[in-house]
Amino acid sequence: MLAGIAIVFFALPFAGILWRVPWSRFWDVLSAEATRRALWLSLQTSVMAAALCLVFGVPLAWVLARVNFPGRRAVRALCTLSMVLPPVVGGVALFFSFGRRGLFGRWLDAWFGIQLPFSTAAVVMAQTFVAMPFLVLTVEAALRQHDARLDDAARTLGGTRWYVFRRVTLPMVRPALVAGAVLAWARALGEFGATITFAGNSPGNTQTMPLAIYLSLESDPEAALVLSVVMIAVSFGVLMGLRDRWLGEVQSA
Amino acid sequence: MTVNADFGVDFPSFTLALALHVEPGEVVALLGPNGAGKSTALRALAGLRPVDRGSVSVAGMVVDDPVANVLVPPEHRSVGVVFQDYLLFPHLSALENVAFGLRARGGGAAGARTTAREWLGRVGMAEFVDRKPSQLSGGQAQRVALARALAFRPSLLLLDEPLAALDAATRGDVRRDLRRHLDGFEGATVFVTHDPVDAYALADRVVVIEDGAIVQQGTLAEVAAHPRSRYVAELVGINLLGGSVRDDVLTTPSGGEVVVVDTPDGDAFAAIRPQSISLHLQHPEGSQRNVWRLTVADIDQQHDRVRVRLQGDVPLVAEITPAALTSMGFHPGADVWAAVKATEITTYPR
What we know:
Chain A is mainly α. Chain A has one domain (33-252): Orthogonal Bundle (MetI-like fold). In chain A, 81% of the residues lie in helices and 0% in strands.
């Protein structure tokens, strides 16, 4: 009964959107220049953010799971803070550290002439900042569950640490790796608060789909509905694929 | 391919100290109760646990010596390991499991697979090359693990309780095959077990470890004939009494007296086979020099014999026939007379 209420609670808002969507204008809105640019920018930046999450998040997860060092709990809390923080706060933090007058930003500007805020790079940074914890936590949990004695066995067979990581550890945590990457990507795709605070809202440059939706809500609510449906479809598709992937792995194990 | 090890490993609760010399082709069993440090010894030899003092050398190469600052990682030692629950890689087929060591050591994938296929054939697993470990029975997994450990031709083979995970039905077969493969292996072999049957079937020599130290070593026959600890005595099913001898009488710490023959004065062990002890309801009239009044603690009835554990000044286990038990009809808690001839007791210095 309670579960039924929960399901209805999740289903109703989407029904509400779908009911109001102006299907006759669907293709017009989708094919508009501004929409295409926002969609393309969203895809580009979220994929890059997911890639960055993998490159830095997997080693971080490994360290958190396998290396015993003082303050590990504090480091884990720090690295996953952005997951529970309001994204706007993350954006503010990024702005005041990497902005032109920020703690590090002023050096980036003075030494390299790099100005991060209000650039596409800033979008990717903001997305990576909020998305990486999803990957780190997922992969860390999998690494903890992974039987380290298998790695020992592989070492005695002649595998170096890197070889063992590549041929034993990584393949065994792959389901978690895929899940973590997809979660991080979806989180990056939906990123709004940190992006608008740190990267601003410049069409084609920093205006991602969530920003475009929010702004068109003022000017053209129907367009906002269409864009929302696209986001819902993409996210729903990803989650469906993810569930199947998980279940498939569980069954074959 | 000789193995020379003399090392110590420290733990918060105990210290393992082990001196071991194994010749090529020789099979040594580390025998001991759980927690004695046997598996730690294997981990130290494999390089998975650095030693805290002493040194380990395999095939003439020092692989671990903290004083000389030498620590060769496991992947650069020539040591194959069969782990207790085999630890086959679950995501790889039997073939890829066996080929793993050859590929990790720089062999080409195709050549490694050919060699792996040969090894799987050698251990009787030719039909199972494509199976995943989850599709193998315990005995099959053990064979794959053995092939995996031997395929890269290590100088030293380590096996941690190689038969413990198997059920009784497959155990005999796997043990016999393992014996055959160990006979054909030219390197040194060290295996850990707590089962004297495995040690008897597989090992040339037995090293008994208790509480992190060697208590006894030699052939199993030597060890069984002269046990030097309660653990070994119980393992081989013999009564062991320690005490000091004076004028052919051994006095135990609890004050029991045992008449022995031709034993020099001083600290000694007395070993008494359970079969040589007779039990009586009345004081026996025979020629036995040793007669004790003891209390029956418990009775363990096996199919063709009965083991009776006795408590008193001279705690013993006696073995009698079911018929004898029926005719005497005693129960735990009863007092009985136990008798044994002095000439039936083996003594040796402590």
